[in-house]
Design brief:
The radius of gyration is 12 Å and the shape is globular. It is 32% helix and 26% strand. The chain has 73 residues and is an alpha+beta fold. The longest helix is centred in the middle third of the chain and has 14 residues.
């Protein structure tokens, strides 16, 4: 089940590294064409990112304040 979360509230753990430019470009183009993320943003109950870092970066690039997230409890 997905919920809305403020982008600014999502905590990015230090182990996430900057994605390759090609991958990020593909995700940006996908979002621009489809208006949805190719990969869901998954966070834990503490608001820490588990998966979907490129989707998070795309949301930032498109200045979204809130995003749909999957919360693992």
């Amino acid at each position: 089940m997905s919920e809305k979360e403020k982008l600014e509230n999502i905590k990015i753990p230090k182990h996430f590294v900057k994605p390759k430019q090609k991958k990020l470009k593909e995700r940006l183009e996908y979002f621009a064409q489809n208006k949805i993320f190719k990969v869901p943003i998954v966070i834990n109950k503490n608001g820490e990112l588990i998966d979907g870092y490129t989707s998070y970066l795309v949301a930032k690039r498109f200045y979204q304040e809130t995003v749909e997230v999957v919360i693992l409890r």
